[in-house]
User: What shape does this take?
Amino acid sequence: MELIKRPRRLRSTPGLRKMVRETRIDASSLVYPMFVMDGESRVDEIKALPGQYRYTVDMVDPKMEELLDVGVSSIMLFGIPDHKDEMGSQAYAEDGIIQRATSYIKNKYPEMFVITDVCLCEYTSHGHCGVVCKCGSRHDVDNDKTLDLLQRAAVSQVLAGSDMVAPSDMMDGRVAAIRSALDHNGFTDTPIMSYAVKYASSFYGPFREAAGSAPSFGDRRSYQMDFHNRREGIKEALLDVEEGADIIMVKPCMSYLDMIRDVYERTDIPVAAYSVSGEYAMVKAAASQGWIDEKNIMCEMAVSAFRAGASIYETYYAKELAECIREGRIG
Ligand code: PBG
Assistant: This one.
């Protein structure tokens, strides 16, 4: 009889399965995205993100403690100002919401690694990620005018205590611009995590509700990437590496695992994957109907990102995932 090859042999016991596991994950790889808003004594639930909230700075403590307790020691902050204007001035105001939140958290919880999102869309009245200009008969975002404001935003965040800046605007040349601004201000050791491979995606819907940042006209397709393109994503990643990015992010995650793998293979810096608001919302919605097992699905999604090549995983499920790792469900 011909010999049957038996891959099942290595699946026979839990111990053996764990021993031969190819992907290992740890809570130190998780980043929790968090919304902070102007005002006082308020915690508002985000409708399309059940279990996720916007916090005023004075209300963040329980969340910080909860995260640190389970071993999640990285957060990504998004600021939501009361006042929005054409130029997104609160993004680079010394006493802006993200600056105040960063400085509060870093002072009180120095062990928390605070990453700050560098973009203008949460701060502009029109909701675009940069300065809007009229190019002939159509409105567009002026790339080079925006760079100047992004530099100011990044420097002001680091002055407030940010450990790492994460530009998510998708302007050309912004990594180099931010690197040089940080260096000029003496912040040569502050890394840049660039959202280099960021697609124009409907998966960001719930985030835009949370941040009030849906564009009031047009869409983001003149700066975020067309989701039909793969090689262009590699081009974006390589350019950002050249410009000095320390980490490359791919976003969204679940529909873009090919891009995580490509960037992992084509660059030699860490790859981060951001499982965005729409991914979380879909799981929550189906789970609330009893149609899927929330914990198992969330674990499977997370492991797939690491298997594809990510070493950092940003998710609204960071705390729950850390608990699953602790329980030995995954890891
Ligand atoms: C832009 C930004 C967005 C997200 C992160 N940074 C929204 C957008 O590009 O419209 C989306 C994240 C999510 O959906 O969870 N500052």
